[in-house]
Write a sequence for this structure.
């Protein structure tokens, strides 16, 4: 009874956010619109009586993956897109034709499948086994192999990203101006005084680096890093 | 619900009851949060050897209203950047994500209200309540990150990114420390978890339950993760005054700052309620089976204990450095939470 207005509402929200995501110039607004799309999809899952999938959609997609995307946009300071003039003019009629083909296909599929009846809820309400339990059981008995393979795949992606992003350079650069292996600042009892911006690790690591590379002189072009 | 159901149908009766419950809960939570701010200032004062604010009203009890008036009448200074939409959106996300989880907490057992009959003192009962809380907590990170970025100032950006990184790191150990409770309860429904902790004069609370698996490791992990999640001392580097001016809410003034401030305290209240519900037995206590309304009193007493613990920690501990904080979260707390899950699951499997 209430399902049709709810479906129209959440569907319109999803489509509106998706159009906003593509049409926005500022990348952060696109990211926020994408979060709106995911939340609308979660609401649509709720109308299909799949609350577990809705919650997991919010937790994983909107709450973790999009946080990563937002972090990247903020850290890299991605700028607004500049509107460039349209160069390839033939693409406009081609896109209109292809969009019409897509709509025609979708209408055909809807017409074809409209006699199949409405979607049944995934759980049987009288069986006492909720959606979470049935998903868990299925995931660890029938679908165990895809589950484990997917986890290995995600681990591969993680390790690959870390390996690609790792830079092999000198381990903790010292603060410029204090690059001596024998520090000039000694305290009243002969202990080493740390300069501001330096931890004990910095001094030891730099000493190790100098010993390994046999440099007696201070590398003057060592750039000072911020805090680690 | 009987009389009302007979008038307008069961679904509409339940919707109206939930609507009234939401309004009552909203007002109650905001009042509790306002007085938590006052309590924090007073208790911190006592810890530090001074009195807190005690001028406004008897013993300072009208101080929250004075603060509210101040916030309303302050001048709103908006930075002149091009991201005004996000600047206005961030405190809205923060306060909404902080207030949304309160609908699933059971405040008391089943009571008989005069018009509506038997009624569980929960606003919304559904069987994935715990996942809902975790999901809304995940969305609450955006309020902080977007606030930091849209303020167009380097202090805010650094503070916002640090706070968001800290929040998403400790969310993992938060979720994993709750898995132990879910394992021994067999359900994600918070009302069900509280009901299972009844009887035996409080010896069946999840924290020290011998008949199932005692969740003491999970409790400690959860508490530490919750304190880090809500950016409280000792994990409050992103908003410490001596570090980054005021962190991600540097450029916010008047009412928007009040929204962030309130969002932090509502978050504190929410995680205290979750700790009470999952580990300390919720509304269970002596006398609940005889007189159900006393369950609300026990619930509020336990939540107040957690709030006092938060304030106590704030007055006592120094704060972590950011790299210490991150390494503690990833290298110690996450393995301990996973270990808790493994131990709980192993003990349960061996008993079956």
């Amino acid at each position: 009874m209430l399902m049709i207005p709810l479906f129209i509402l959440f569907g319109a929200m999803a489509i509106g956010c998706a159009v906003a995501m593509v049409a926005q110039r500022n990348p952060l607004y696109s990211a926020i619109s994408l979060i709106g799309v995911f939340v609308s999809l979660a609401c649509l899952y709720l109308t299909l009586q799949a609350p577990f999938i809705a919650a997991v959609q919010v937790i994983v997609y909107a709450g973790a993956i999009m946080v990563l995307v937002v972090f990247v946009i903020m850290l890299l300071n991605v700028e607004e897109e500049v509107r460039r003039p349209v160069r390839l003019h033939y693409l406009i009629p081609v896109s209109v034709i292809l969009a019409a083909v897509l709509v025609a296909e979708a209408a055909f599929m809807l017409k074809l499948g409209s006699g199949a009846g409405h979607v049944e809820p995934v759980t049987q309400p009288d069986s006492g086994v909720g959606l979470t339990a049935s998903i868990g059981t299925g995931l660890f008995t029938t679908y165990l192999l895809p589950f484990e393979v997917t986890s290995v795949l995600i681990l591969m992606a993680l390790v690959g990203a870390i390996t690609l992003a790792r830079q092999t350079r000198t381990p903790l650069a010292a603060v410029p101006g204090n690059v001596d292996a024998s520090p000039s600042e000694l305290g009243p009892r002969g202990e080493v005084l740390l300069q501001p911006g330096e931890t004990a690790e910095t001094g030891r690591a730099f000493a190790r680096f100098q010993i390994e590379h046999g440099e007696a002189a201070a590398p003057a072009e060592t750039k000072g890093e911020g805090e680690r | 619900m009987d009389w009302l159901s007979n008038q307008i149908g069961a679904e509409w009766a339940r919707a109206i009851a939930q609507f009234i419950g939401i309004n009552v809960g909203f007002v109650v939570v905001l009042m509790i949060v306002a007085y938590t701010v006052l309590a924090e200032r007073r208790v911190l004062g006592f810890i530090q050897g001074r009195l807190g604010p005690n001028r406004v009203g008897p013993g300072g009890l009208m101080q929250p209203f004075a603060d509210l008036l101040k916030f309303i009448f302050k001048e709103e200074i908006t930075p002149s950047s091009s991201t005004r939409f996000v600047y206005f959106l961030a405190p809205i996300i923060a306060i909404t994500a902080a207030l949304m989880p309160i609908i699933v907490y059971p405040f008391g057992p089943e009571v008989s209200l005069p018009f509506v009959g038997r009624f569980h003192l929960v606003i919304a009962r559904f069987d994935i309540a715990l996942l809902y809380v975790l999901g809304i907590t995940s969305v609450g990170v955006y309020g902080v990150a977007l606030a930091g970025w849209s303020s167009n100032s380097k202090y805010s950006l650094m503070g916002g990114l640090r706070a968001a990184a800290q929040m998403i790191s400790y969310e993992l150990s938060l979720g994993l420390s709750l898995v132990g409770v879910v394992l021994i309860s067999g359900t994600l429904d918070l009302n069900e978890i509280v009901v299972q902790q009844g009887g035996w004069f409080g010896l069946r609370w999840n924290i020290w339950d011998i008949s199932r698996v005692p969740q003491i490791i999970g409790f400690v992990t959860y508490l530490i993760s919750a304190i880090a999640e809500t950016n409280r001392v000792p994990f409050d580097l992103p908003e410490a005054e001596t570090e980054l001016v005021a962190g991600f809410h540097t450029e916010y003034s008047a009412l928007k700052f009040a929204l962030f401030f309130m969002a932090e305290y509502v978050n504190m209240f929410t995680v205290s309620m979750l700790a009470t519900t999952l580990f300390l037995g919720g509304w269970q206590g002596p006398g609940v089976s005889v007189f159900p309304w006393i369950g609300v009193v026990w619930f509020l007493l336990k939540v107040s204990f957690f709030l006092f613990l938060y304030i106590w920690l704030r007055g006592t501990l120094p704060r972590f450095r950011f790299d210490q904080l991150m390494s503690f979260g990833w290298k110690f707390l996450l393995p301990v939470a996973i270990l808790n899950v493994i131990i709980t699951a192993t003990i349960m499997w061996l008993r079956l």
In short: The first helix of chain A runs from residue 3 to 23. Chain A touches chain B through 25 residues (CB under 8 Å).
